[in-house]
């Protein structure tokens, strides 16, 4: 069986003038359809660079990405990205922000009425249909992230790329949104690749956690399976032995074996 998403021997070197920095070294990973995979690692190790390569926003120096056996060379609606800072267009309403993507992707395959219904359907999925006519400045940070997720889902991507989607939110809003993303994953069974700094978030949400070593020349240090059945409930997991073991394993990797050393 071929991999759904394959990161194949990726190296990435940035060059500025005479200076070159090798950020990623020989990254290989395969992700199955419907899997939720998180990438965790210290600041600056190259997580966003890797996600951008999968998104097609940055080219790998060596190696590449295959999605259903097709090489990824540019951005496309089959790989929708949700960034830490929502990136909604401020002059458009919530509805229009989602509709814009829907019109772009489904201009030929859906009628106007279908595109309207599909936009509302996706706003409903993230419980934001009630704010359809509001502008981004009129809604909270958590709500903006929900709209960003609706916009991404509305493109029916093969892979959803989440770049620290909860990073800018307060703890409670973050927990609510994590629960929503878990519920959406249960319902839609989408394939998700997420970057996070947060160990609990990684264990709570993921089927597998990819741990990166520190840069430069960051590699995949370890991949951990999280064998907890879905749906998961955060309160029950707090005392679950498997959860605690996974959490401990990631903490050991990050804070013992691959401690972050501040540049001098
Ligand atoms: N366009 C670029 N040109 C040169 N260097 C870059 C470029 N983009 C990223 N880098 C460098 O690559 C390294 C990895 O950056 P990246 O943002 O991918 O790390 P990260 O793990 O996502 O960090 P954080 O967790 O802090 O967001 C950093 O040293 C960064 O300075």
UniProtKB/TrEMBL annotation:
It is found in: Cell membrane. Residues 5-239 form the ABC transporter domain. The keyword Repeat does not apply. InterPro entries: AAA+_ATPase, ABC_transporter-like_ATP-bd, ABC_transporter-like_CS, ABC_transporter_ATP-bind, NO3_transporter_ATP-bd-like, P-loop_NTPase. GO terms for cellular component: plasma membrane. It is a peripheral membrane protein. GO terms for molecular function: ATP binding; ATP hydrolysis activity; nitrate transmembrane transporter activity. Pfam families: ABC_tran. SUPFAM superfamilies: P-loop containing nucleoside triphosphate hydrolases. It comes from the Bacteria. Involved in beta-(1-->2)glucan export. Transmembrane domains (TMD) form a pore in the inner membrane and the ATP-binding domain (NBD) is responsible for energy generation. NCBIfam families: ntrCD (TIGR01184). Belongs to the ABC transporter superfamily. This is Nitrate transport ATP-binding subunits C and D.
């Amino acid at each position: 069986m071929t991999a759904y998403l394959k990161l194949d021997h990726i190296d990435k070197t940035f060059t500025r003038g005479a200076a070159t920095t090798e950020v990623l070294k020989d990254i290989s990973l395969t992700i199955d359809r419907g899997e939720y995979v998180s990438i965790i690692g210290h600041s600056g190790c190259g997580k966003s660079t890797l996600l951008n390569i999968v998104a097609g926003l940055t080219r790998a120096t060596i190696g590449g990405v295959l999605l259903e056996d097709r090489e990824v060379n540019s951005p496309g609606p089959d790989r929708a990205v949700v960034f830490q800072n929502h990136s909604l267009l401020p002059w458009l309403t919530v509805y229009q922000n989602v509709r814009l993507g829907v019109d772009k992707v489904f201009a030929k395959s859906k009628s106007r009425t279908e595109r309207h219904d599909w936009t509302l359907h996706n706003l409903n999925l993230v419980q934001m249909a009630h704010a359809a006519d509001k502008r981004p400045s009129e809604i909270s940070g958590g709500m903006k992230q929900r709209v960003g997720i609706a916009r991404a889902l509305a493109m029916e991507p093969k892979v959803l790329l989440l770049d620290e989607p909860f990073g800018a939110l307060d703890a409670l809003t973050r927990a609510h949104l994590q629960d929503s993303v878990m519920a959406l994953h249960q319902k839609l069974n989408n394939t998700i690749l997420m970057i996070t700094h947060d160990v609990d978030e990684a264990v709570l949400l993921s089927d597998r956690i990819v741990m990166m070593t520190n840069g430069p020349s960051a590699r995949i240090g370890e991949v951990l399976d999280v064998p907890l059945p879905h749906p998961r409930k955060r309160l029950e997991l707090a005392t679950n032995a498997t959860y605690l073991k996974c959490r401990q394993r990631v903490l050991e990797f990050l804070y013992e074996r691959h401690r972050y050393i501040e540049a001098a």
